[in-house]
Hints:
This protein has one domain (3-94, 118-191).
Amino acid sequence: xxxxxxxxxxxxxxxxxxxxxxxPFVVMLASTIPFVEGEGGALVGMIGGLNPILVxxxxxxxxxxxxxxxxxVSSKARGAVVDRRAARRQTVSVGAGGSAATEGGxxxxxxxxxxxxxxxxxxxxxxxxxxxxxxxxxxxxxxxIPTQFTSAIFVAGGASRGWVLLWQAVAIALWTxxxxxxxxxxxxxxxxx
Length: 193
């Protein structure tokens, strides 16, 4: 037995000690972690010796649940920011001649504060969003950054929650299926387990 087979067998013995009905939840929990996502969760489940279909469904569900939470929170945060900016603009236009406001101790203009430079992954996702729209950027997004970050960028940019969730679900299903099938094929035909 080569070292890879031995490592996989030992991991499968460890997984076998966990109650059978809990095993898919472990895969689901692993899939909620950014950078692990459905692909990594599927790999963990496949190496653990679980049923490929069960692994794929659990991994995709865990990843989607984390994306759902991120989209809801990002949407609420964006709504609060947009409402606050609208209230400030209204206060400024009514208040101090349109250039400054003094309400609540705030004195100054409403110019944007320069933000720190964006990461290369974020820049790539934004360019994909402009080029391919939410569908294309959702499917290509996991190549650059995790789906949780991608969906937050989309919602913060003003994309519809429903549209983002739909296309993130499609992307998660595609990538998780590809990872599950690849892991199954590698374990079956290359490793021989």
